[in-house]
């Protein structure tokens, strides 16, 4: 699944940029197709029409394109040439995040996407409050995926972050092969800066962040036994959402594209 970012002229001749995810993209046929809710938004809300110039992605590469045809069912875009620079970070960043209370999780999903995270693993820890199962879990997951999609569109990313199922913490800790693995621990001897200066992120970085009460000492110990390095975030106590933004921003600045 790719995305389309369209340029159209609104009132007063001001150029606007829009982005949509395509149902299919075939580079050999030089064609991308948008259908469903995305097509409805493109056609009925934004009123884009044949001739509007757009960008199309197959999830990895971007192409200049133009809308060739659009009807009540779908929009077809014709590919023209590749775009040399995409909005994806060179840093393979995974976020293991213990589920927080209320709406904080949806906010974290949005901001993690904007900051370039490639994979998000929601986990259940000792101090996690939310518990999801069965049909309710399926509904929640669909909503979370939609939030990721909209955040990717807003930030002009060519890919939507991978969202794993809600996973027990111990299982999630053993699921990745990043060369740098960090776990946030307020009582850690070293801060995030020192850990980054001494770490190797050539195969990506994974960071594990606890819920509002943080990970328990036993959970941090188990993370360390799986190769995670404990790090603190400074002398000040941060809210969970602030901690997430701080960690991801610093990782992207130091190891990614700034």
Structure description:
The longest helix is centred in the middle third of the chain and has 21 residues, at 134-154. A seven-stranded antiparallel β-sheet has the order 2-1-5-6-7-4-3. Strands 8, 9, 10, 11, 12, 13 and 14 form a seven-stranded parallel β-sheet that branches. The chain is of the alpha/beta class. Mean pLDDT is 88; it is low at 9-14. The protein is built from seven helices and 14 strands. The chain has helices spanning 36-45, 104-114, 134-154, 169-173, 192-198, 217-225, 240-255; strands spanning 2-9, 15-22, 24-26, 31-35, 53-57, 62-70, 74-83, 93-98, 119-124, 162-163, 167-168, 180-184, 205-209, 229-231. Helices cover 31% and strands 30% of the residues. It has two domains: 2-83, Hypothetical PUA domain-like, domain 1 (Ribosomal Protein L25, Chain P); 93-255, 3-Layer(aba) Sandwich (Alpha/beta knot), CATH 3.40.1280. α2 (104-114) packs parallel to α3 (134-154) and α2 runs parallel beside α7 (240-255). It is elongated. β12, α5 (192-198) and β13 form a beta-alpha-beta unit.
